Amino acid sequence: MNAIVTAVSSNGEYSFTKPNRDSITLLAGLGVEGDVHAGVTVKHRSRVAQDPTQPNLRQVHLIHEELFAELGQEGFAVQPGELGENITTRGIDLLGLPVGALLRLGGEAVLEVTGLRNPCLQIDAFQKGLLSRVVGRDGAGNVVRKAGIMSIVKEGGTVRPGDTIRAELPSGPHRALERV
């Protein structure tokens, strides 16, 4: 199966969900043009409260459309943009990528994977019980986060639904994603 972008979303105001767009523009070193989370330093409110000078490793949030189907089987109705992601994908194992993987979107944009999204309680405000479906524990008791990955923009460009996604793995040992 070819990996593709199925939806793009952005919001210039703090809100849990992000409206779908015909396209988004990624700006190198910043994030999604016009999105509230774009910037060199952290923009997520909880991170700003801790230390507003931290580098923004959460410029662009990607989530796999396959998660929506999984959640649908458990009685949750989730559509692209509703979990706050900027880019919805299909056909790529986002959660299995290593730190530093590059994602080439369409013909121009390049993202560098920084880690896993650490979902917050706002997910349960969106749909009660959803947080426990996107964060849980495996058989060994390890925390498993399924709410997508975070990235930074290495090369800017326009991204649209239907764009292809190509992953390039970094050299060296596989560094599993951790929450950022």
From TrEMBL:
Sorted alphabetically, which InterPro entries does this protein's record hold? MoCF_Sase_C, MOSC_domain, Pyrv_Knase-like_insert_dom_sf
Tell me which PROSITE patterns the record gives: MOSC
Where do the TM regions start and end?
none
Q: Which Pfam families match?
A: MOSC
Q: Which residues form the MOSC domain?
A: 18-168
Q: What is this protein called?
A: MOSC domain-containing protein
